[in-house]
C-alpha cells in the first residue's frame, strides 16, 4: 500500500477551516468539495489514458483521452456523498457506484447495508471516497469488496487519516494495489475512535444530525 499526503498551501488552508468547530454546514460542504478536487488532482495522476488523433483549428495532432473501461468513483455513504461532486467535476466521464456502510459503535467494525456498482470490475481503476480514515475498518471492507469484484487498481481519497487506520490498512491489504491520498495524517485516535485533532464527525458536519 502507498500513502500520499498532499502537501500544498491551499490544501492546508481549506483543511484548517474544516477543522474549525465554528464552520457551519454549508461552508463545510463547500470547502470539502473544493478540497476533494485538489486531492483528486493528485490521486488521478496515474489515471489510464490512450492516444487519440484530433484536428485542431490549425492542424492535425495527437493527444490523449481517458481509456476504457472508464474509471469508477465509489463514495461511502453517507459522508462520502459530500465528496462526490468534487470527484466527478475532475472526472466527468467516470461512472459512479455506491457503498452504504456504517460503523458498529460497540465493536467499531464496519457493516455493509447497501451496494450499487458493477459485479465485474476487471481492469477498472476505482476511486473510493470517504472523508475519514480512522480505524481503517470501513475502507478495508470496502476495498476487499472491490478487489473481490476484480478491481486491480484502487485509490482511496480521504480528507484525514489516523496513523492507526493507516497501519491497519497496510496490514490487512498487504500485497494489494491500493493507494491512499489524504490531506493529513493526524496524531492519533481517541477512546471513541475519533481522529485527534481531526474535524469531528464529517457526516454530521456536512448534513446535520437528523436521523
Automatic annotation (TrEMBL):
CC cofactor: Mg(2+)
Protein's GO biological process: UMP salvage; uracil salvage
Regulation: Allosterically activated by GTP.
Signal peptide: none
GO cellular component: cytoplasm
Pfam families for this protein: UPRTase
Keyword flag Metal-binding: no
Listed name of the protein: Uracil phosphoribosyltransferase
Source lineage: Bacteria, Bacillati, Actinomycetota, Actinomycetes, Kitasatosporales
